[in-house]
Design brief:
Blueprint: H1 12-19, H2 24-28, H3 36-44, E1 47-53, E2 59-65, E3 72-76, E4 79-83, H4 92-99, E5 102-108, E6 115-125, E7 144-155, H5 158-163, H6 180-187, H7 194-200, H8 203-206
Antiparallel strand pairs: 1-2, 1-5, 3-4, 4-7, 5-6, 6-7
Helix pairs in contact: 6-7
Length: 212
């Protein structure tokens, strides 16, 4: 890749010169503790992305999902928890947290363009009394990420409006990319045939491992 013709930005001053200063409203909307409207948002959100970075700066952004009302457990106005659910066991974000506790969370509500962003410091907890309140489909989590909130704020809808993400007429999940089984066969060698992978990823089969 040739980069000689690129004009890079190498300082904050250059960045501000290009983008301008943020509006006062954007600066002052950040707050250190949950308000009632934040709690209402968290209770309605079934999905978030958790961003982490390791000690060496390597980054990870992990999706987290549960039924609305079960995704987040609010411990108090400055502390919340996310349950670990069965996955691929790579635990990239959790490994990062052990080395660097800083995390960023972005909470989504389907159909809404605005999101709630939370930044803070995280720790991994393997058991606590509040785990009993995070049971889904009879399954109690074996791990929770507890986040001490440092700042949070609502983010505007422009990215969703530009992308048309929530507009069903723009959806074409397999029009430009192959189905999940084909992707897995191409880039995730397992020895399984395409027929076996299609059966594995069949919604009714794949759903059996969501909590068990």
């Amino acid at each position: 890749m040739t980069t000689e013709a690129w004009t890079a930005i190498t300082s904050v001053d250059e960045l501000v010169e290009l983008l301008g200063e943020p509006h006062e409203r954007a600066i002052t909307k950040s707050r250190p503790a949950l308000l009632d409207v934040d709690r209402e948002w968290l209770a309605a959100s079934p999905f978030c992305v958790m961003a982490t970075a390791g000690a060496d700066g390597s980054c990870d952004a992990s999706p987290k999902g549960d039924p609305a009302g079960r995704l987040v457990h609010v411990i108090d106005d400055r502390t919340l928890a996310l349950a670990e659910r069965p996955g691929n066991r790579r635990a990239d974000g959790y490994r990062n947290i052990l080395a660097n506790p800083h995390v960023g969370l972005n909470f989504f509500i389907p159909g809404r363009g605005d999101t709630l962003r939370v930044n803070g410091r995280a720790r991994l907890v393997r058991d606590a009394p509040f785990f009993d309140e995070m049971v889904v489909k009879g399954h109690r989590p074996v791990l929770a990420v507890v986040v001490e909130i440092e700042d949070l704020f609502f983010h505007c809808a422009k990215a969703f409006l530009r992308s048309g993400l929530w507009r069903p007429e723009t959806w074409d999940p397999e029009g430009r990319v192959p189905r999940r089984a084909v992707v897995a066969q191409r880039v995730e060698p397992s020895g399984m045939t395409l027929e076996q992978l299609d059966d594995y990823y069949r919604p009714e089969n794949y759903a059996r491992g969501l909590y068990g």
